[in-house]
UniProtKB/TrEMBL annotation:
<dbReference type="GO" id="GO:0046872">
    <property type="term" value="F:metal ion binding"/>
</dbReference>
<comment type="similarity">
    <text>Belongs to the SCO1/2 family.</text>
</comment>
<feature type="disulfide bond" description="Redox-active">
    <location>
        <begin position="86"/>
        <end position="90"/>
    </location>
</feature>
<dbReference type="InterPro" id="IPR036249">
    <property type="entry name" value="Thioredoxin-like_sf"/>
</dbReference>
<dbReference type="InterPro" id="IPR003782">
    <property type="entry name" value="SCO1/SenC"/>
</dbReference>
<dbReference type="InterPro" id="IPR013766">
    <property type="entry name" value="Thioredoxin_domain"/>
</dbReference>
<protein>
    <submittedName>
        <fullName>SCO family protein</fullName>
    </submittedName>
</protein>
<keyword id="KW-0479">Metal-binding</keyword>
<dbReference type="Pfam" id="PF02630">
    <property type="entry name" value="SCO1-SenC"/>
</dbReference>
<feature type="binding site">
    <location>
        <position position="86"/>
    </location>
    <ligand>
        <name>Cu cation</name>
    </ligand>
</feature>
<feature type="binding site">
    <location>
        <position position="175"/>
    </location>
    <ligand>
        <name>Cu cation</name>
    </ligand>
</feature>
<keyword id="KW-1015">Disulfide bond</keyword>
<feature type="binding site">
    <location>
        <position position="90"/>
    </location>
    <ligand>
        <name>Cu cation</name>
    </ligand>
</feature>
<feature type="domain" description="Thioredoxin">
    <location>
        <begin position="48"/>
        <end position="212"/>
    </location>
</feature>
<keyword id="KW-0186">Copper</keyword>
Length: 212
């Protein structure tokens, strides 16, 4: 389920493929939960209803305010991990979410996108504020401190790795590229793989909203 990408194209190694398979099992938790979900045939994304993780999320956003999932009760929350200097996967994913919000029309106000940086060393609050504004002013960026990042990644069962460059500041980040979708009660419900189109994601969100 979890996909991870380098910021430069590369062929996936067998170890990376194995990581994806293992992470899928971890996030899904009990496979039977997916099979039992009544909406499994309707969703375009992978149904992970019943999984429990990231319940204690507590990070500062680009404005310096501490955020938790409880802050967004009543909204659909989409969580994506990335970094501002990512040249491809991240801007593509964020642009997709901006299109999803547009497709939702009046229900777009019930969508909250959370971008969690995997590069807190370079992604300062001012930079994250500028980056979010380039996609949608309502999107929020969360920044863990460098010593918090590993714990946050573990809570979300996502992968990240610094890939050293020619200088200390020219590194890139390999990272998971999918999106987690939480329902209006703060429960993780879906995993949307990288490359899922905006129409499909919007359709899934409408299904979740219709159950409210």
């Amino acid at each position: 389920m979890t996909q991870h990408f380098s910021s430069v194209p590369a062929q996936p190694t067998s170890s990376r493929r194995r990581f994806v398979q293992i992470t899928f099992a971890c996030v899904a938790g009990v496979p039977a939960l997916v099979a039992c979900s009544p909406d499994v045939a309707k969703f375009k994304s992978t149904d992970v209803t019943g999984a429990t993780f990231a319940e204690n999320l507590r990070l500062k956003d680009q404005y310096g305010s501490v955020r938790t999932l409880k802050d967004f009760k009543g909204k659909i929350v989409v969580v994506f991990f990335g970094y501002t200097q990512c040249p491809d996967v991240c801007p593509t994913s964020m642009s997709t979410m901006a299109e999803v919000k547009r497709l939702l029309g009046a229900q777009g106000d019930l969508l909250q996108v959370l971008f969690i940086t995997v590069d807190p060393e370079r992604d300062t609050q001012p930079l994250l504020k500028e980056y979010m504004a380039s996609f949608d002013p309502g999107f929020l960026a969360l920044r863990p401190e460098p010593d918090e990042l590993k714990g946050v990644a573990t809570d979300f069962k996502i992968y990240f790795k610094k890939v050293l460059g020619s200088t200390p500041t020219s590194y890139t980040m390999d990272h998971s590229a999918g999106k987690y979708i939480f329902d209006t009660e703060g429960r993780v419900r879906l995993f949307s793989a990288y490359g899922t189109d905006a129409v499909s994601i919007a359709s899934d969100i409408k299904i979740l909203l219709s159950a409210v």
